[in-house]
Amino acid sequence: MKIEKGGFLKVSNIINIRHVPRTGWVLRGVPPAVAETISDHIFLVTLLSLKISQDLVENGFKVDVAKTLTMSLVHDLPEAVTGDIVRYVKEEEPSYFKMIDEKSLESLGMGKYLPLYKEFEERKSLESIIVKLSDCLATIIEGRKLVALGYRDVEEIVKNMENQVEKILESLSNLELRKALEKNIIGILEK
Amino acid sequence: MKIEKGGFLKVSNIINIRHVPRTGWVLRGVPPAVAETISDHIFLVTLLSLKISQDLVENGFKVDVAKTLTMSLVHDLPEAVTGDIVRYVKEEEPSYFKMIDEKSLESLGMGKYLPLYKEFEERKSLESIIVKLSDCLATIIEGRKLVALGYRDVEEIVKNMENQVEKILESLSNLELRKALEKNIIGILEK
Amino acid sequence: MKIEKGGFLKVSNIINIRHVPRTGWVLRGVPPAVAETISDHIFLVTLLSLKISQDLVENGFKVDVAKTLTMSLVHDLPEAVTGDIVRYVKEEEPSYFKMIDEKSLESLGMGKYLPLYKEFEERKSLESIIVKLSDCLATIIEGRKLVALGYRDVEEIVKNMENQVEKILESLSNLELRKALEKNIIGILEK
Amino acid sequence: MKIEKGGFLKVSNIINIRHVPRTGWVLRGVPPAVAETISDHIFLVTLLSLKISQDLVENGFKVDVAKTLTMSLVHDLPEAVTGDIVRYVKEEEPSYFKMIDEKSLESLGMGKYLPLYKEFEERKSLESIIVKLSDCLATIIEGRKLVALGYRDVEEIVKNMENQVEKILESLSNLELRKALEKNIIGILEK
Amino acid sequence: MKIEKGGFLKVSNIINIRHVPRTGWVLRGVPPAVAETISDHIFLVTLLSLKISQDLVENGFKVDVAKTLTMSLVHDLPEAVTGDIVRYVKEEEPSYFKMIDEKSLESLGMGKYLPLYKEFEERKSLESIIVKLSDCLATIIEGRKLVALGYRDVEEIVKNMENQVEKILESLSNLELRKALEKNIIGILEK
Amino acid sequence: MKIEKGGFLKVSNIINIRHVPRTGWVLRGVPPAVAETISDHIFLVTLLSLKISQDLVENGFKVDVAKTLTMSLVHDLPEAVTGDIVRYVKEEEPSYFKMIDEKSLESLGMGKYLPLYKEFEERKSLESIIVKLSDCLATIIEGRKLVALGYRDVEEIVKNMENQVEKILESLSNLELRKALEKNIIGILEK
What we know:
Six copies of one chain form a homohexamer.
Chain A: H1 11-14, H2 23-26, H3 38-58, H4 65-74, H5 79-82, H6 87-90, H7 94-110, H8 114-122, H9 126-148, H10 155-170, H11 175-190
Helix pairs in contact in A: 3-4, 3-9, 3-11, 4-9, 7-8, 8-9, 9-10
C-alpha cells in the first residue's frame, strides 16, 4: 500500500475495515461470514464506552465524554492499514507495533489523534480505562455468543478478556470508581 | 419480539444490527455478503461526524462534539428492533414511524437518548445538521463504491443523497458555516 | 425507489428478494449467510401449499390448486419493494401496511393479483387458510433448524408460529377439514 | 445419503437446495455468496411460468395453470438429492440421469409427481413448453446480471439459453401461440 | 462449457473450484458460507498426504513423495469441470464417471496426469492408498467439526468415511505398514 | 492462543487458514465472501509449482519435485498462527517476523520443515525460486480477476507482483533456465 504521510482523512481506506474479520475469531474456526468485523467491533466498543461514561457522569465522576467516544472510534483504526494482528505476534515487540500503529494512523489522515491514541495505550486516564474495559467487554459479549454457537476454541479468548477486566479493576486505587465500574460491567454482561 | 419498556441497555439486541444489511442496497441487487450492514453504516457516520465537528471547532464554530458523536451512534439504533425500513414505506406516515422508532429506542434501554433522537429528527441544531450530513455522505461513499462494482440501480440512491446534501447546505442562513461545511464535504468525497 | 403504477411484471425488481434475509432471523442473531431469504421462504411456502392442497383434494375436499399456488407465490412479493418489515412495526397500523403492500404489488406489475392478495389477507377461503398454514409451517421448520444450530432467540418466533397454527385450526368449524389438516401438519413437521 | 423409496414429503431434505449454488455460475467464477441458489432459481421459474400461462389464458389459449405451476416447482427438485449436475456431464447419458432424477424425486416423497416430471422432460405439452421457456428465461435474466457485474465467462451460458429459447419457439407449429410467447418473452427480458 | 481437448494448464478454469462448496455438506444443511470448498479439501488432503508419507519414509517404508503429493493435488481436479457429484449419482455407473473425469482432466490441460489419476482410482500402489486415506481423513476432520456446530445430518458421511478407512486398513496384507498407518491416523484424528 | 512447542501436526489449527481471507485483498475493498483465502492461495501456488517444475524437468533441468511441492504447501502455513500480515508491517523488521514465522511453524507440529522454510526465505535454490514465482503468479492471477470485477485498488498489488517476477527472472544467471521460466510464466498468465 502506498501510504503518504499526513494529509486528510482517507475514508476510502478506513471504510475497508468493514471487510476485515477479527483474526482471533477466524483462527479459531469461525468463518468470516459468521465472525464480526473490525468495524462491528469498533461500533460496539464506542456504544459501551458511551454507556459507561454516561453512567459515571450521572454518578458524579468526571469523564470527558467526547474524548472517550473519540478514543473508542480511533483505537482500532490503524488496522485499516495493518489488518488485525494477533497478540501472539505483537507481544514480544510492543514498541515496534506501537510505532507501526502510529504511522498507520497518520497515513490515514488521522495524525491529529495521535496523542489520544497514545493516551489509550498508556491506560492512565479514566477515559482510556473506560475504552479499554469496553474493548474487553465487546470481545467477551461476541465471544460468548460464538461459544454458544459451538465455536469452543473461542473460550480461550473470552477467559483471557475476563482476566484483563479483573486486572484493570483491581489496579484501580479509587474504590468508589471501581465499584461503579463493576456495577456497570455486571449490568452489561447480564443483558 | 417481546420488548419490555424502559430498563437497561440491551446489548444482546443492539449487537444484532451487525447482521442487518441496508435494505436500500439489497433491494437494488447487492447480495448481503457485499452490502454494508447497519453497524458498518453507523460506524462511518460517527467517524464523519467526528471529522466534520472537529474541523468546525478548529475553525471557530461552536459544536458540542460529545453530543454530535452520541447522536451519530444513536440515530439508527431503533433499527435493532424494527430492521431497516425504506423511505418509500415511511414517507406517508412519518409521525407513526417516529413513534415506533422512539418506542424501540426505549425498549433497547436507551430511553435517556430520546431527546437527542428527537433533536436529530428536527434537524435544527448544528449537531443534528452535522449528523444528517454525515449520514448522507456515508451513503454516498458506499453507494459510489457499489456503482463502480457494477450495481447500477444504486445510482438512484446516490443522486437522492447528493440532492439532500445540497438542500441542507442551501437551507443554512449562516454563510460562513455553509462554506466551512462545503469545504469539508468536498474533502471527504474526494479522498 | 421510483415505482410507477401499474405496468408489466418487473422481474428485475422482484428478483432482488433473493438478497433479502428474513428480518426476524437476523434481528435474533442469525448472520445473513446463514439466514433464509424471502425467496427461499416463498419457495418453501409454495411447496407446502402444493403438498397440503393435493392431499386435501385426494381426500375429497374441494381446493383450487392453481389459486393456492398463485397465492403462495404472491403473498410475500410486496417485500421486493418494502423489504421484510417485522410484526412489531406493523401490528398497530395493519390497514396502513395493507395499503402499502397493495401499492407495492401493483408497482411490480402484479396489479392483477390484488384480489388474490386481499383474499389471502382476509383468511376466509380454504385456499387462503392453506397458504397461511404453509407460511407458518415454513417458518417453524426453518426456525427449529436455527434453534438446533444454537440460535436460541429464534425459539420465540417458533412458539409464536406454533400458536398461530393452533389458532387457525381451532377456528375451523368443518371438523373433517380440521382433522385432515392436522394430519398433514404433523406429517410435515415430523419428516 | 440413505434414501428410502417412496414415503412422505421429505421437507428436511428438500429445504437444503437453498444451500446449493448453481454449478454453472460457480464454475465460471461467481462466488456462492453472489451466485443464485437452486431454490432462488425455482422460485423465479415458477413466477415466470405463472406470468406466461396467465397471459396465454387471457389471450384464449388453453393452459392448465395448476399443472404449469406444479411442474415448475418440481422440475429441479431432484437436485435436493443429486446436487446441480452440469450439462457437460449429463449430455452423453441422458437416460441414466433421467433415471437417477426420477429415483431421487421418489425418495423425496414426491413419487406422485413422476408423470409430471416425465411430461416436462418430453417437452410436448404446452405446459412443459412454458416451464422450459421459463427455465431458460430465468437463467438468461440472472446470467445477464452477472455479466453486468463483470463475470464475463457467464456469457456462454446466456447465449446457450438464448439459442434454446429460439429453438423452442421455432419448433412450434401453432404460429399464434408462437407469436404470443414471443411477445411475452420480449416483455419479460426488457423489464 | 466449451472445453477443448488437450492443451495447456487452464488455470482460469481450475481456480474456480474455490467457489464450489462440497455437495455432501450443503445437501445436509450446511450453508456455502460455512461449508468447505473443493480447493480447501484438496489443500488438506495434500497436507495429510505429506504428513503420512513423510512418516512412512522415516520408518523405513518406500514412498515416492513427489508422486503422492501430485496425486493428492490432482485427485479432485476434474471437479473444476464437473462440479462435485455425490456418490449416490456415481455409484451405479462408475466407469462412465471415470471416463468423464478423465476427459475433464485432459480438457484442463492436465492430460499428462491421467496415468496418475488412474493409479489413484485403482488403489493398488502405496501412494494411492496414502492419498485415499488422506481423502477420508480430511473429510472426517471437517465432518466432525460440522457435527460439533450442530449440523447433525453430516454424521452419516463421517461414519461412512470411518468405515472406508477401516476397510482400507483391513485390506492391507503388509501388517507393519498397516500398524504404521494406524498410528498415523490416530495421531491425526486426535490433534 | 496457547501454542506449545514441537509436537505433532496440529490439523485442527492448520485447517483454520481456510477462514482467513488474504489481508491484501480485504484492505483494498474486497469482501471476504469474494476474496480468496490463504488455503485457496496455497492450493494454487502448489499447483503452479507442480506445473513449472514438471516442465523444467521435461526440459532437462534438475528439480526436486517433492521438495518444491512440500515447500509450496509449507510456505504460508505460519499464517495459521499469525494470520496474514501485510508487507507494510513486516518490511522494517524482516528478521523479527522470520523468527515469529519459524516459531509458529514449530508450534503447528511442523518443526521438521524449518530448513525448507528457511531455504524458501533465502531464495537461492531452484526450488525456492519456483515456489516464489508461483506465489507471485498465483497473486497476479487472482488480482487480475478482482480488477476485472471492479476492485481497482487491487491493481497496485498486481503491478507489485509483476515487478517481483521480473526481478527474480533478471537475477538468474543461467539464461536457459530464465528462458524456460519465462515461457512457462507467459503460458500460465495467458490461459
